[in-house]
Specification:
Helix content: 25-40%
Shape: globular
Oligomer: single chain
Order of helices and strands: EEEEEHEHEHEHEHHHEHEHHEHHHEEEEE
Low-confidence stretches: none
CATH superfamily: Metal-dependent hydrolases
Structural class: alpha/beta
Strand content: 15-25%
Number of helices: 13
Bound molecules: zinc ion
Strand order of the largest sheet: 5-6-7-8-9-10-11-12
CATH class: Alpha Beta
Radius of gyration: 20 Å
Largest sheet: 8 strands, parallel
Number of domains: 1
Length: 406
């Protein structure tokens, strides 16, 4: 056992930092010297991240990411549990494909990889068979064709069946409407092809499903515009939660990341949207922060620019930097990064904090360099930027999983 002493560590029950010593196991021999004690003065410890929306790409697209590189990227971002989305090849929407993915996830021992099953035209009548195996469900609303598609009239049927089997698993739905997107398909820019009303109309539908199926946990992912926030403000449903990605807190159309990183779904919105989103996130109206980690190679981005950017390593620097700029507070960040995602995915919250922990420096800025970026595709929308929140240690289940020396 190694003692990490004088650590300013977050206590979940007291909702504040306190100075403590903790003991961790160094099973992976990450500490080069046989030191029994490391002085952590000047560093802070917070509960490690749970990311409810990632695309680790395996099986099928291993040239972009795989379970091992995804897990290494996650641990380098202070994230120790992820929920992997279903748009792999094969698509994750059957018992076989879920079990295949769980087996692939066992290749690594850095993090827990939970598996979402898509609800599709192929499986919407068989969810009772799938339920014991998956960790969550995902409905891909803006899907026009292919195996991920579900016809809208079948969504209520699938939700009714999930209510009947009393699933406790969340149903995650991306708020972008198929019909609106197809209507604007020929517009000249990505922003105009996927306008805010596509989100508003989809969110209204998600809202109605949450109202009709009160026993289900319905979760709207990737909120990006102010109308969604207005709707959230007006009505509160206890079984409806939401998230946004770090990228919508950082970027807007007037302030976009470099060329290829600018294309994401939903698209970047106006500065006003971003400011309102940040406020809604700061007050907890939007409960959760996720990455929507969706890596593509730079060659693919240059060729046909598929939507999506890496992000699992970028969440924490975004949040810590926003804290330094007095736009967020630690209490809210810990809720959004750990507590609410744990509630959504039914993960036990470790009240005395020392078993799943990220230890970082909140005071000294660092530059996002190429070396820092761990995703297989080797690029970040934040490259070159100065951020706060450089990670020194990550601990999962009491075991040291990452140690960086600077
Ligand atoms: Zn996604």
């Amino acid at each position: 056992m190694v003692k990490l002493s004088n650590l300013k560590c977050w206590n979940i029950q007291q909702r504040d930092f306190q100075i403590i010593d903790i003991e961790v196991q160094d099973k992976l021999n990450l500490l080069s010297s046989k030191k029994q004690e490391i002085d952590c003065s000047g560093l802070i410890g917070i509960p490690s991240g749970i990311d409810t929306h990632v695309h680790f790409r395996e099986p099928g697209f291993e040239h972009k990411e795989d379970m091992l590189t995804g897990a290494l990227t996650a641990i380098n971002g202070g994230v120790t549990t992820v929920l992997d989305m279903a748009n792999t090849n094969p698509i994750t929407d059957s018992v076989e494909s879920i079990l295949q993915k769980k087996k692939l996830a066992e290749k690594q021992q850095f993090i827990d990889i939970l598996i979402a099953s898509a609800i599709t035209n192929r499986n919407y009548k068989k969810l009772d068979k799938i339920d014991p195996f998956c960790d969550a469900y995902k409905i891909f609303l803006p899907e026009f064709e292919g195996d991920l598609r579900i016809d809208e009239e079948r969504i209520s049927i699938s939700l009714a069946s999930l209510e009947e089997i009393e699933t406790g698993k969340p149903i995650i739905i991306q708020a972008e409407d198929q019909e609106i997107i197809s209507r604007y398909n020929n517009k000249e820019t990505h922003q105009k092809q996927r306008p805010p009303e596509a989100e508003t109309i989809a969110f209204q539908k998600i809202f109605n499903w949450a109202k009709d199926f009160r026993s289900l946990k319905i979760h709207a992912t990737l909120l990006s515009n102010s109308l969604s926030i207005k709707m959230l403000e007006m009505t509160h449903l206890p079984n409806l939660t939401s998230d946004t990605s770090f990228r919508y807190l950082l970027f807007d159309v007037e302030n976009v990341p470099p060329e290829y990183a600018a294309k994401v779904n939903p698209p970047f919105r106006s500065k006003m949207d971003r400011n309102l989103l940040l406020k809604a996130f700061a007050t907890g109206l939007i409960e959760i922060i996720c990455s929507d980690h969706a890596p593509h190679t730079l060659e693919e981005k240059a060729k046909n620019n598929p939507s999506g950017i890496p992000g699992i390593q970028e969440i924490l620097p975004t949040l810590v930097t926003k804290i330094k700029q007095s736009e967020l507070e630690w209490d809210r960040v810990i809720e959004a990064f750990h507590i609410f995602p744990a509630k959504l995915l039914d993960i036990e919250i470790d009240n005395y904090h020392a078993r799943n922990l990220v230890i970082l420096d909140e005071n000294v800025p660092f530059k996002i360099s190429k070396d820092w970026v761990k995703t297989k595709v080797k690029w970040s929308a934040l490259q070159g930027q100065n951020m706060f929140g450089r990670i020194h240690f990550v601990i999962k289940d009491g075991i040291l999983k990452l140690h960086n020396t600077f």
